[in-house]
Protein: Putative cyclase
Organism: Cylindrobasidium torrendii FP15055 ss-10
Amino acid sequence: MAIIDLTHRLDANTSIYPGDPPFSFSQCTTIEKEGYSVRNLALGTHTGTHVDAPAHFVKDGPTIDQIPLKQFSGKAVVVDVTGRQPRDRICWEDVQPQLSAHDLRNAVIRFHTGWPVHWSTAEYMHHPFLDGLVAEELLKAGVKRIGIDALSPDETEGTDESFSIHHTILGAGGLIVENLCALDQIPKGAMISFPALSLAGGDGSPVRAYAWTS
């Protein structure tokens, strides 16, 4: 079985969404002094590679601990939208031809922008983003779980800050995975998993996302 890690490593250089809590990982005890090692971990629920629960944007929406475990895995369908310029809008006509070649039942759609090359740099904030119609058309096709290898499927600090993708997908009870990487390594027919921490009342959670083939 082949396993592909789709997760960014968390460290001091982790790209953080503007305004989110900073990442911190500090030593509390050491083997040399106390005989065992313990570290203090502090981060936001949307730090690094993570999944958004509906509660992230929907008042009284399902929280991350209320999502059935089976929803955190499915058939991986990767849409190649690489070669874009900073803040380019990705429209439905850009992705529909690729999606039409797939059976979208139980699919988890992953948008491969190639933007992880800018991870830990200021340029990472200027990623391409999805037009709102993309989410609307995916819902019509029965798709409620999407992901992207960028900071957000919506524009970050730009001219379109309506969060239309978040409102559409999460508003339908779906899930959004952000800050993925290595999407170009997922082979056809692979499955994908992104298990979340069971955080009581959580609006999202860091994940260890991976794809696999049997």
